[in-house]
Every structure is written in C-alpha cells, then in structure tokens.
Specification:
The chain is of the alpha/beta class. The chain has 15 helices and 13 strands. α8 (about 160-170) runs parallel beside α10. Bound molecules: adenosine-5'-diphosphate and ligand VHF. Adenosine-5'-diphosphate binds next to α2 and α10.
C-alpha cells in the first residue's frame, strides 16, 4: 500500500497536490497557532516545489483563531454571527502566518477565499480554475479557505474537507492530502478499544459510513470524519486519489513518503471533467424516481425520457441539479433537469408523442440529457 501511496502523491506522478490542514491541527487548545509545526510542513511543500510538484494549501483555522481573540465561547461556533465575526478576525492572522512562512522558503502565497456558490456555479467554477492555473503557472502557492465572514448557512461548505476536494477538481489536481489529528480512518471512533486503522478504502459504502462518528472531537474543527468521507467521495469520483494522514508529527509530508500511517482512498477511473463537476455538486434541488427500464437505459448511456419517470419530488427549475433514483432514496444518477418540477410532474410516464398535447408547447424530448447526466 505504501507503494500505491508514493506513486499517487510523489512529484513524478502527481504534478499538482492539494494539502488541507484542519483546525484541530493548526490551532492549539489555548487558541495559538502551532507555528513550529507549520514551518516543517511548509519546508516539505518547498522541497516538493523544488522537485517540480505544485501545491495548493486549503487551510482551516480562521474561526478558531478569531474566537480566541474576540473572547467568544464554543470556539466561535455558538451562532453564525459569531462564526462570521471570528472568521474575519482570524483569517487576517491566518493569511499573515502562511504568507510569512512561505516567504521564508522564497514562495509567494496567493490567498483565495471562496464560498460554496463559487464552486457550484459552472461559470464561477471555471473562473476559479483559470485563476488557479495562472497562479500555479507563475510559481505561487494558493492558500485557500472558505469565505466564512460572508457565507450564510445556505451557501457555506462549513468544513474544508469537501472544499479541498472541490478545489482539487477545479485545479485538475491528482492528489489530495487531508492532514488531521488522527492517522486516518479507523473502523470505529479511534478512542474506542480495539479501533484499527484502515490503510486503503476502495469504495465508500454504507459499511464505511457507519464507522464514523458525527462532528469534530477536538471541538475546534467542524466536519469530523464524516466530511472527510464526503470529500473522499467527491475526489475519487473525479479520478483524484485522497489520503487522510496525521499532522501530529513534524514534516508530515515527508513522514507520509517514508511510509507513515494513513488511509488511502483510491481514485475511480473514467468520467469527463464536466461530469465530475456535476457529480460533485452539493446543492441538489429535487429528485425524479424512475422505473426499472429507465434504470437500465441510463446504465447503457441513454438520456432520461419522460416515459421512464414515475414521480417528481422537490421544487426545482430548469437547469437545476436533481438526483435520479429507483424505488429507494439512493441516487443512481445526478443531472441537470430540462424541465421545472411542475412540468416534469405533468409529463411523468408519458411518451414523447404525447408531450406537445400536455404542455401546449414544442417540448424538449428528454427530462435529463445524457451529456448533462452522471451515474453515481
Ligand atoms: N472512524 C473514525 N476514524 C478516525 N477518526 C474518527 C472516526 N470517527 C470520528 N473520528 C474523529 O474525527 C476527528 C477528525 O475530524 P476533525 O476534528 O473535524 O478534524 P479536522 O479539524 O482535521 O478536520 C478525529 O479526531 C476523530 O476523533
Ligand atoms: N473555514 C473554517 C474552517 C472550517 C473547519 O472547521 O474545517 P475543519 O477544521 O477542516 O473541520 C475556518 O477557517 O475556521
């Protein structure tokens, strides 16, 4: 397994790597930054930079840092207003530390603060991709965090694990390393007796999900292991390998190279860049249930026709992302709807020749076009 890891993440085989640093790792319980440790991570990044690998840093910690300075309790997470205020105070400190440490290695830090919407909207997503491309081409090191001080509940990731996976997709990275305060994914909460580290995961299914306790144990982070699994799901579907590893040791990237403990999520094969963007979208507005014949048709690469649809749930507009399921709640596909929810419900189960009479207009022949659809 160590061989897999090295091949997936060393400069020769991974030209662009995303490294995410969690709050629990960056901020100490007394609210100060683990600066000496961070310096060893930046030294690792610099060594890889010299070996030809470009790195993007996704950093948490703004809320935890700001909360301490403003004297907020519950790590600044008692309310959205607290989190927003704490983030504005903490982010400026956080950026300063990264800029300072990278400068110490003669690397230019490039700050980008993004919201969920920036990565869900196709045009803004491509814009971020272009900015990252230009920065990396110029040899800068992007340092990214969520724009917490303006993000509201509806438009926020809330954890930086999924943000790191989405950034990796946008930038065309081939590896993501999530550094946390655990060695990786254990078969149960790591403090429980008998907990065993799982070195590789090929598929994130229900058996893997039940191993994970909700929330952050340190009280500093927000996502916990559940959001790391979501991130692994987004990344691996996009053909990107992801590793969860401990940042509790100095030189954490070097430690990983030398065979340090971790969990590796293997990338999946296939899928276009556009489809992987679609599959990773987090804002799903509705659901269409389909019959067995339609399930088979989608698996064979066809578009979804109204004739195979059974029912419609949710309120969505044309162009919104919807899930497609058979008779349970597990989505088998995700795509952009050609119809709003009201019209989609009206034409469910009807043949193409009947649509004009039902809708009174020249209809679009498919509910979801195969180019706008990804199997999950
Ligand atoms: N099955 C599991 N394996 C590993 N860690 C787990 C598991 N279930 C819950 N956790 C908890 O997830 C925590 C890491 O998440 P979090 O505190 O959000 O870190 P970060 O700030 O690095 O994102 C670990 O400290 C651990 O206690
Ligand atoms: N954007 C937030 C980080 C969100 C968060 O806590 O993420 P994590 O530590 O990865 O669970 C911040 O800078 O405080």
């Amino acid at each position: 397994m160590v061989a897999d890891l090295s091949a997936a993440f060393l400069p020769a085989s991974c030209p662009l790597l995303v490294v995410k640093v969690g709050s629990s790792l960056l901020v100490q319980p007394d609210g100060t930054v683990r600066r000496e440790w961070l310096q060893t991570l930046v030294a690792d990044i610099s060594a890889r930079h010299k070996a030809g690998q470009r790195c993007i840093i996704v950093t948490s910690g703004a809320i935890a840092l700001g909360a301490r300075r403003l004297g907020f309790d519950k790590g600044g997470r008692a309310s959205l207003a607290d989190a927003q205020a704490a983030a504005s105070v903490g982010q400026i400190v956080l950026s300063g530390i990264w800029a300072d440490l990278l400068e110490g290695q003669s690397l230019a830090a490039a700050q980008m603060l993004v919201t969920l919407d920036d990565l869900e909207d196709r045009r803004r997503y491509l814009n971020i991709a272009a900015t990252l491309d230009r920065l990396l081409g110029a040899g800068a090191v992007p340092v990214i965090n969520e724009n917490d001080s303006v993000a509201t509940e509806e438009i926020r990731f809330g954890d930086n694990d999924r943000l790191a996976a989405r950034v990796a997709q946008a930038a065309g990275a081939t590896g993501v390393i999530l550094l946390s305060d655990v060695d990786g994914l254990f078969d149960r909460a790591p403090h429980l007796p008998g907990a065993t580290l799982l070195p590789t995961i090929d598929k994130i299914d229900g058996r893997v999900r039940v191993m994970v306790a909700e929330g952050s144990s340190s009280g500093m982070g927000s996502g916990g292991m559940a959001s790391k699994l979501d991130a692994a799901d987004i990344a691996t579907r996009a053909g990107i390998g992801l590793v969860i590893a401990s940042g509790l040791r100095d030189h954490p990237l070097l430690a990983l190279e030398q065979g340090g403990a971790s969990t590796f999520f293997a990338p999946r094969e296939g899928g276009s860049a556009r489809k992987s963007w679609l599959g990773g979208r987090l804002t799903v507005k509705g659901r269409i249930r389909i019959d067995d014949g339609a399930v088979q048709a989608l698996k064979n690469g066809s578009s979804l026709l109204p004739a195979g649809a059974l029912s419609v749930e949710g309120e969505f507009k044309r162009g919104d992302v919807i899930d497609i399921s058979a008779d349970d709640d597990i989505a088998i596909a995700r795509g952009l709807s050609e119809y709003d929810a009201v019209d989609a419900a009206r034409i469910c189960g009807h043949r193409s020749s009947e649509l004009a009479a039902i809708l009174g207009t020249v209809p679009r022949s498919v509910l979801v076009h195969r180019d706008q659809l990804v199997l999950l």
